[in-house]
Amino acid sequence: MNRISNDDRGFAAAGPAFAQLDRLGPIDWDAWTAAAERLARDLAGAADLDRRIHHLYLPVLFFCAAQARHVAGRPCLVGIQAPQGAGKTTLVSHLLAQLPALGVRATGVSIDDFYLTREEQLRVAAEHPGNPYLEHRGYPGTHDVELGEATLASLRMLGEAAADACGVRVPVYDKSAHGGRGDRAPESKWREVTGPVDLVFVEGWMLGFSPVAESPLDDSDLVAPNRALAAYDRWHRLLDCFVVLRATDPNFVLRWRVEAEEAMRASGRPGLDRAAIADYIRRFLPAYATYGGAPSHIAPERQMTVWLDERRRATER
Length: 317
Fold this sequence. Notes:
The protein is of the alpha/beta class. Helices cover 37% and strands 13% of the residues.
């Protein structure tokens, strides 16, 4: 393994998120270099590779590994909030691959897997006729909060004492069902997570959002989702730390999500066409303008915020 050069160390330390690692103690630069080399192989051919590795992936990786060491006896639950299409699922998959080399056993779940069934979602839409935010999955009020809470609470128990215990059944949501409108997969297709685990990623576009006062809301259709947000505190209170990826311009989300949907369709999986996905994502822009940030109970030293430019590169705000 090559040691990191002073120039490479300077490049990493100049990243917009790096300063948020200072409070966590000295960086193990040998471990940083080893992780960078593995990511360079895994991400070969990706655009802006050095910036992606040293300014985004590795700062988040080392932040999460440090946070896991602060929690004893059970897994550390790390919330990750990021706009649709920002690459959070890809980020988490690479973090999961890197953490074992840092001595951290990890798994991940998405709040997408806690969406209501298709039948339940249609019922919600019927109860709010004409409300564009509750017509389809996505907004607060379209998740099974109780199912999510039970799943996260069970995952939180997968510490060392769980080595010989039964695993946790994690629901799976099939976004390709019903022509891309989605549905919860049957329990036979749910996945099982077994312990012991040191860290659990919980990722979602609206994870951490909290309700705001209704008086400033210009859009009356936002009132129902805003009220529904209060119940999501049952998830948030189970989180130990939080990572926020934010677009410097919320309008980037439309382009990102269209790209992601088209990639899914190109892979042969059913999905929405460009017009339908554009219509779908525009419904979320008011939420990005209204909400954001970590849950209020997460201390500043247990939060990391990374701003992204149009090319999903870490940047200054």
